[in-house]
Design brief:
504 residues; D-Maltodextrin-Binding Protein, domain 2; 2 domains; five-stranded mixed sheet; 13% strand
């Protein structure tokens, strides 16, 4: 074959080869660009449905942050289990919601699995303005391994049916004794006026709690008990359950149980059904976050339009040592950045930029309110939701709030409220900051607790339940405290006190 023919035949092959290389390089570059613009997140899902890939709210958030947002949604009930599985797999997202300082998270931090963020936050407009106290609370022994998700500092409230109060001739309680009298009247004085002995005072679910905001935690502070840990006269941390004030609260709880002023099944009652006895007219009081009051009020109005403004709230009642309330930590979990997926400082800064942008007003609005004209409308600057009779619209964005941090403040729209209940809830939050009992060991993380915390907590929680229902007396409870110390509690307090002195 003539050389010129060979050349002519070879040319397309070379050309095709070059084109192929070029196409591969282009494809590779496109993939790199795509990955650069992608942010992968793992977050808990509390709604029945997650925002789908085509959610208008998700698309709007992507347009605003200039990132392709891919979320792995995990049901909240199994989130901690999934977290541990994902950490073990090594196939991690760029950002992961951490719901609490669980042993699994602490172990991962100590193994160097997450970026320590303290040195970087000053470079970002929103993140640099995070609340220092809340940042410390969310830290691990003073080091920041996640951007906290802000929550109201004061949420604890006493929720009461005021129509029942009127029917039994009582005012809102001001002291612990008043509170007891209200519960007693709701049991004995036919507050619903149906002529039957079928009511009781307060609903309590199986959520016993140990410094995490359960009804028992809240009511203990009324007696002057510490929030999880107190500080003794020597400046040392001591567990709350070793104080006299705690025991006085425990005897009060037992009295409520013995006199049937609380539900007999509290130790097994599912917290998902917590509102039901109040809505169904069986009980008149709940001690929990103020937001529950609005849920109950709405449910009562749906049942009967005549039930308008029957639910109200107060923040606390006066006890033997003054008036106190139980605060939150100021946050509900945090967003951490794994080193396995974010390998360099450059990549870390890109993720932090995304998280910073998520705190901008517009991003907060999209994540919490959705898209204007679809999920809400603005008329003369006044916000109103378009989702009231359309849960599908709500689910388009509701899950996105799981990675909306609200730093330095919540900037999304809130429908204007004029009700007495809303105003009183705002008042409770404002006044509560002056009387809040803070946990002095909030930021301290102990190796002993990481290893034995669940076992130690269960010793006290079981004894607490047994004491309230009468299975053990005070000596039995003190025996459980002794067992707690012997099972690792002594080592825990020694370690916590070392960390506490160092932190000061």
């Amino acid at each position: 074959m003539p050389k010129n023919v060979k050349k002519w035949l070879a040319a397309p092959a070379v050309c095709l080869f070059i084109m192929g290389c070029s196409a591969n390089e282009t494809s590779h570059q496109q993939e790199k660009d795509r990955q650069k613009n992608e942010i992968r997140i793992m977050a808990p899902l509390l709604s029945p449905e997650s925002p789908g890939e085509n959610s208008p709210s998700l698309k709007a958030l992507e347009a605003y942050t200039k990132k392709q947002i891919n979320v792995t949604w995990v049901p909240n009930s199994s989130y901690n289990d999934k977290f541990n599985i994902v950490m073990a797999s090594g196939d991690l997202p760029h950002a992961i919601v951490v719901t609490d300082k669980s042993p699994g998270f602490i172990k991962s931090v100590k193994a160097g699995a997450f970026w320590e963020l303290s040195p970087y936050l000053k470079d970002y407009e929103n993140l640099s303005r995070a609340d220092k106290k809340v940042m410390k609370n969310s830290s691990i022994n003073g080091e920041v391994y996640g951007i906290y998700r802000a929550r109201d500092l004061i949420r604890a409230s006493i929720i009461i049916r005021t129509d029942w109060l009127n029917n039994v001739g009582l005012d809102m309680p001001k002291t612990i004794d008043d509170f007891y009298e209200v519960l007693k009247a709701f049991k004995e004085k036919d507050p619903d006026k149906n002529g039957k002995d079928d009511t009781y005072g307060m609903v309590v679910p199986k959520w016993m709690g140990l410094g995490n905001g359960s009804p028992w935690d809240i009511m203990q502070t009324w007696f002057g008990a510490p929030n999880r840990y107190g500080v003794n006269e020597n400046g040392e941390l001591v567990p709350d359950f070793t104080t006299d004030e705690y025991m006085k609260a425990l005897f009060f709880f037992k009295k409520l149980y013995d006199e049937r002023l609380i539900n007999r099944d509290f130790a097994v009652m599912d917290s998902a059904k917590w509102n039901d006895p109040v809505v169904k007219g069986k009980a008149g009081v709940i001690v929990d976050t103020g937001s529950r009051a609005s849920q109950i009020q709405s449910a009562l109005e749906e049942k009967d339009s005549g039930n308008k403004d029957v639910i109200d709230v107060i923040g606390s009642v006066e006890g033997p040592k003054g008036t106190y309330t139980f605060p939150t930590s100021g946050y509900a979990g945090m967003i951490a950045i794994p080193k396995a997926s974010v390998k360099t400082e450059k990549e870390l800064k890109e993720v932090l930029e995304f998280l910073d942008n998520m705190n901008d007003k517009q991003a907060q609005i999209i994540a919490n309110n959705g898209v204007e004209g679809r999920n809400y409308k603005l008329e003369n600057g006044a916000f109103s939701s378009l989702e009231k009779n359309n849960k599908k619209l709500l689910y388009e964005h509701e899950g996105l709030a799981q990675f909306s941090m609200g730093i330095p403040e919540q900037r999304h729209y809130i429908e204007e409220q004029t009700s007495k209940l809303f105003k009183h809830r705002q008042q409770v939050m404002k006044e509560g900051e002056k009387i809040a009992v803070f946990n002095p060991a909030e930021s301290l993380v102990s190796d002993v607790y990481t290893q034995k915390g669940a076992q130690l907590d269960n010793i006290i929680l079981d004894a607490k339940t047994q004491f309230i229902i009468g299975d053990i007396e005070e000596k039995g409870f003190q025996d459980a405290v002794e067992l707690w110390y012997k099972s690792g509690g002594e080592d825990l307090m020694k370690e916590l006190n070392q960390l506490y002195q160092k932190s000061k």
